[in-house]
Amino acid sequence: MSPESTSALSVSSGSHGDAVVVRAVGDLDYDYAPVFRRQLAELWTAPPTPAPRLVVDLSGLTFCDSTGLAELLWVLQRSGETGTRLVLAGANRTLRHMLATTGLLAFFELADSVEDALERP
């Protein structure tokens, strides 16, 4: 896995079987959302495209604001357009609450950990 940035948000990705795992560590907010989007956008343009499954590891997030939530919605939309199964792994209680409060929780597949997401059929 190679880091995308050493700023307040670092994003790395790697292949695991039929899945690509993207790990976000730090703040997913207005200032650093472009780092997240750039890394994800590259995944849909790099061969082979698209991966059958995308696991976004959010266990390292320390903060997520409405801009970060919008980025997750963008990933959900893009996944739907490309036929990629999206799993959010390790979302903390605050992020789960934000998704529930906004009525978006039902649209995301959640897993407690990356390992749990990768073990799913």
UniProtKB/TrEMBL annotation:
Pfam families in alphabetical order: STAS
Entries under CDD domains matching the protein: STAS_anti-anti-sigma_factors (cd07043)
Residues of the STAS domain: 9-121
Signal peptide (from-to): none
PROSITE patterns found in the cross-reference section: STAS (PS50801)
Origin: domain of life: Bacteria
Family (UniProt): Belongs to the anti-sigma-factor antagonist family.
Stored NCBIfam families: ant_ant_sig (TIGR00377)
The name this protein goes by in its record: Anti-sigma factor antagonist
